[in-house]
Give the backbone structure.
Amino acid sequence: MKRKTAGKKNGRSVKRACWLPILLLCLGLVFWGAARPAEAALRIGGTLPSTVIPGIEGSAVRIPEVLRGKVAVLHFWQIGCSSCKLEMPAMDRLYKRYRDKGLAVFAVNVGQKKETVKGFAAELGVSYPILIDAEGKNAAVYGITDVPRTYILDRGGIVRYRIFGGAAPETLKRLVLSLL
């Protein structure tokens, strides 16, 4: 049985092959894997990638450096998220009660303007730092695709718990206390 050829090149037959789809598949897998390292870093047992996020008052916060040596709650949220509106006061109660024992709480607003967030934060009256990621660049570094999303880290900076969606105040307290 003869194979079809696409012609001759340099005196050799060029065989038709299905190499193009295979090549595209391989390239896709390589790029897909390269586009996901931050998400992999936020798995339980992983560490946070370094980033700098501006605070609501303007000062920049370096993560994970600011969390070292503390049990930390890193909460990604938006105004309009009903779960976030319930969780944030619960996190504030935890923060006020356990900050002297090494608890740090940071809430990162994703995709909203500083002025709007500032008003909302004042309405809630939380005492922990609110960070602003207006363009969502830092959320992308952490693989955040929806809110709320909460990460709880141990004193060594290791992600020990991650919560996709809302969490009951009792659950937050139990997870934090397990690390303090």
